[in-house]
Design brief:
The complex is a heterodimer of chains A (about 110) and B (about 120).
Chain A: E1 5-7, E2 10-13, E3 19-24, E4 31-37, E5 44-50, E6 53-57, E7 64-68, E8 74-78, E9 87-94, E10 102-103, E11 107-111
Parallel strand pairs in A: 2-11
Antiparallel strand pairs in A: 1-3, 3-8, 4-5, 4-9, 5-6, 7-8, 9-10, 9-11
Chain B: E1 4-7, E2 10-14, E3 20-25, E4 33-38, E5 45-50, E6 56-59, E7 62-67, E8 72-77, E9 86-96, E10 100-105, E11 109-114
The chains are: A mainly beta (about 110), B mainly beta (about 120).
Chain lengths: ~110, ~120
């Protein structure tokens, strides 16, 4: 069984651009969470989706948005990129919203 | 209230040593305490986890000790190996917005195991 997959692996953008990151959860998992991990720090919670509905949002500006599709895959969108958005973006899937989370390899975003 | 404080920030041990990483919390509503291992350029991988009604859990060379009254928990790695060199994160799960849960993470401990 494939684990959590994320695409792209790496991404370089310039300030002001927007970006879309993608995540496919483990087969059968219905919940996806997104985290931002700045170098040298622990992951910070951005969003959680369960059954295509937003179940929670962390302390991130409205430039960050996400959605979950009927096949439970998810997209994270970030508009008007800032230098400070440079980070590893992690997607985690779980069977239900309260279950153990399994992480993907992440997308490394660099904003120049 | 929702913080998880992790120490030390970094740790160096010799092969075969027993590194110990400590975490402390304040929020008594946390209901699940996982430890994650992260290698450079990779996502965190679940290592071992414990619930607050258990004082110790062992899986292979990894042991969690949990002290509910002190609101502290720690990870012990027995017979550490160079391949254990990674960053270790403790986390705590909190209920929010009804029945949803999210992880609150420590800042991580960078472990180096010398051959």
């Amino acid at each position: 069984d494939a684990g959590v997959t994320q695409s792209p692996t790496h991404l370089i953008k310039t300030r002001g651009q927007h970006v879309t990151l993608r995540c496919s959860p483990i087969s059968g998992h219905k919940s996806v969470s997104w985290y931002q991990q700045v170098l040298g720090q622990g992951p910070q919670f951005i969003f959680q989706y369960y059954e295509k509905e937003e179940r929670g949002r962390g302390n991130f500006p409205d430039r960050f948005s996400a959605r979950q599709f009927p096949n439970y895959s998810s997209e994270l969108n970030v508009n008007a990129l800032l230098l400070g958005d440079s980070a590893l973006y992690l997607c985690a899937s779980s069977l239900y919203s309260a279950d153990t989370q399994y992480f993907g390899p992440g997308t490394r975003l660099t904003v120049l | 209230q929702q913080q998880v404080k992790q120490s030390p920030q970094s740790l160096i041990v010799q092969k075969g040593g027993i590194p110990i990483i400590n975490c402390a919390y304040e929020n008594t509503a946390f209901d699940y305490f996982p430890w994650y291992q992260q290698f450079p350029g990779k996502g965190p991988a679940l290592l071992i986890a414990i619930r607050p009604d258990v004082s110790e859990k062992k899986e292979g060379r990894f042991t969690i000790s949990f002290n509910k009254s002190a609101k502290q928990f720690s990870l012990h790695i027995m017979d550490s190996q160079p391949g254990d060199s990674a960053t270790y994160f403790c986390a705590a799960r909190v209920v929010y917005a009804g029945n949803n849960r999210k992880l609150i993470w420590g800042l991580g401990t960078s472990l180096a195991v010398n051959p």
